[in-house]
Design a protein that fits this description.
By secondary structure, the chain is an alpha+beta fold. 37% of the residues lie in helices and 25% in strands.
């Protein structure tokens, strides 16, 4: 069956509108990232394997093709004044591409090109230094870090000398075995986990009293004009029996480190299908209703992905919830099926 599915996919992909691509080296993509990569998925667009690139030496759109449809990952990595033109050229070349996890400015541009634009969740931003975890509402966040300290845990940034690759690999394997769907991790919106962090990434770890690895938290950088303007949560791993304080305390510790360095912001990543309100643009009522039902569904949360749990965790930090969007020409069921298969949700 898998072989037949692959052959069908290949046949559908061969019928997709041919898009002229540019062979940007990873070094060049990282250079463009440093100039224009000011959104949460910018680093992933530059480093994720399997993506194709449309654009030129001054900016790009990252996309992947599935079942004969082109899917764009996040916003263009280009000068903000050039993004609208780049989007228009890509739409003209790619026929009816879909755009996944884009920000408000990209959504507005696509709406102007006749696209339907729906909300697909929110990203949680912690502006710094304002988000300092003070006040009563952040009492439980502060308590988690104190509890870890009292119990002999160590919170630290790992420069590659604290934890061995073998320990990281073992932690990741244990974490995956405890997931709702352990045989796969989401793709496209997430890239594969790296035992050794990629260039410019930051890793924070939690060690127990015997210096064993309990949890880790990896961050991707965000840039503007060559300066770091933030970090975004990329990967989280923890042992199966980790204390509930592990992830909360490690998140607080890392955000405090970034604040002390003068980093302007941290984002906690997408909460998929959470808070699906009106997008403010022409949208698909069908898919808005479907997204809302999926988020509320006990079956989806128990057997596929814990959507409610992801949103609840990020809301513990009381950040600013920034809507993210999905945009499509018509929003067909076939297109949504292709997207779900691309991200390995089914």
């Amino acid at each position: 069956m898998a072989s037949l599915r692959t052959r069908v996919d290949d046949w559908l992909d061969s019928r997709a509108p041919p898009v002229p691509t540019i062979g940007l080296s990873e070094r060049r993509r990282l250079d463009l990232l440093a100039r224009h990569g000011d959104f949460s998925l910018a680093y992933s667009t530059a480093t994720q394997a399997g993506l194709s690139y449309f654009g030129d030496e001054d900016g790009y759109i990252a996309f992947q093709t599935k079942m004969g449809r082109h899917f764009v990952l996040a916003d263009p990595v280009a000068d903000p004044t050039q993004r609208a033109g780049l989007l228009a050229r890509f739409v003209e070349a790619a026929g009816t591409p879909w755009f996944v996890q884009v920000g408000a400015r990209t959504a507005e541009t696509l709406a102007g090109l006749g696209y339907l634009v729906n909300r697909m969740g929110f990203d949680t931003a912690l502006p710094l230094p304002a988000s300092d975890f003070s006040g009563k509402r952040n009492e439980t966040v502060r308590y988690s870090e104190r509890w870890l300290g009292k119990k002999g845990f160590t919170l630290a940034e790992d420069d590659g000398t604290l934890v061995s690759p073998a320990d990281v690999e073992a932690l990741s394997a244990e974490w995956r075995s405890g997931r709702i769907v352990s045989r796969r991790e989401m793709a496209f919106l997430n890239r594969p986990f790296l035992v050794t962090p990629g260039p410019l990434m930051r890793r924070f770890v939690l060690l127990d009293g015997d210096r064993r690895l309990v949890a880790l938290l990896d961050y991707d950088p965000m840039f503007r004009d060559g300066e770091v303007v933030g970090y975004t949560t990329a990967f989280k791993r923890k042992v199966a029996d980790a204390t509930p304080h592990a992830e909360v305390g490690l998140t607080k510790f890392s955000v405090d480190r970034f604040r002390a360095e003068g980093v302007p912001a941290v984002t906690l990543g997408l909460s998929p299908l959470a808070d699906i309100g009106p997008s403010g643009f022409a949208e698909s009522a069908l898919w808005r209703s479907a997204f809302e039902r999926a988020f509320r569904s006990g079956f989806v949360n128990r057997t596929r992905f814990n959507l409610q749990g992801q949103a609840a965790f990020k809301r513990r930090f009381h950040g600013e919830e920034e809507p993210v969007y999905i945009a499509f020409p018509k929003g067909s069921a076939f297109g949504m099926l292709a997207l779900l298969r691309l991200v390995k949700a089914i």
